[in-house]
Amino acid sequence: MIELKNVTKEYTKGNAALNGVSVKIEKGEFVFIVGDSGSGKSTLIRLIMKELDPTEGTIIVNGRNLNRMKHRHIAKYRRGLGVVFQDFRLLKDRNIYENIAFALRVTETPTRVIKKKVPAALSLVGLAQKYKSHPKELSGGEQQRVAIARAIVNEPAILLADEPTGNLDPTNSWEIMSLLKEANERGTTVLVVTHNQEIVNEMNERVITMKHGVIVSDEQRGGYIDED
Predict the structure, then answer these.
(1) Bridge-partner residues for 176, per DSSP?
(2) Which one GO biological process term can you cite for this protein (predicted)?
(3) Are 166 and 37 a contacting pair, CB within 8 Å?
(4) What is the rounded distance in angstroms from the CA atom of residue 151 to the CA atom of residue 191?
């Protein structure tokens, strides 16, 4: 599903944000990526999103070598990913329905399909009655739920969440993590970058810990990791 082979990313010569990272994430896994600021977590996510290219090494996602991906194919590749950010990144001038529908329109999804998928995604995150609301009318937790609905509406194989609970109180944080877990249970591979150690400790999932651009531990709390 996702494999990094000896990946190094230098922003400037000799300054490696990632240094020889190798890791494999299998289809259907739920993985936390943790570590202090500057440990390389967000760089890892940006490489998987193809926002960055590695200085060295190989990145393979769904059997595709990102190193060899032509620029014209990047947008289509990203449409197959669901992405959730700490700052929500909703379109402020559009209502909630249109925010989610936008993710479908860029893939040229027929209108009849959009009319089915958007309400279904809103129902999954508990916001079916607020489809006419604008982002400013919602709480932070509600906005993040909209962001998750937008991320899952295309039924992506992979969902990347970069500090999805960073701006939320504990109650909303747990609600968001529950939604991510539900997406995982429906078959989506989920990667969550987080500083929230309480959530990581409570959830029985794989935890990759990074420090100074390398993976210092890879712990499967809920089962067995195949190291081959």
Answers:
(1) none
(2) cell division
(3) no
(4) 13
For residue range 130-139, list pLDDT tens digits in order.
999 999 999 9
Q: What is the pTM of this model?
A: 0.88
Q: List the structure tokens of 77.
A: 């590749």
Task: Please return the burial class of 146, using the count of CB atoms within 10 Å of its CB with bins 0-12, 13-18 and 19+.
Answer: buried
**How far apart, in whole angstroms, are the C-alpha atoms of residue 211 and residue 215?**
6
Nearest CA to 220 out of 2, 42, 25, 6 is that of 25
Q: What is the pLDDT of residues 12-60, one digit of tens each?
A: 887 889 999 999 999 999 999 999 988 999 999 999 999 999 999 999 9
87 token code pair: 């700052």
Q: What fold, for 25-52+70-217?
A: Rossmann fold (3.40.50)
Rg (CA), the chain: 18
Instruction: Give residues with Cβ within 8 angstroms of 177, minimum separation 6.
Output: 164, 165, 192, 199, 203
The predicted pLDDT at position 132 comes to: 93
Q: How far apart are CA 128 and CA 149, in angstroms?
A: 11
Q: Rounded distance, CA 159 to CA 77, Å?
A: 13
**What gap in Å lies between CA 5 and CA 56, rounded to an integer?**
9
222 pLDDT band, cuts 50/70/90, is low
Kindly give, in sequence order, each residue whose CB lies less than 8 Å from that of residue 219, ignoring residues fewer than 6 positions away.
206, 207, 209
CB-based contacts of 83: which residues, under 8 Å, 6+ apart? 49, 151, 159, 160, 161, 162
Rounded Cα gap, residues 120 and 59, in angstroms: 33
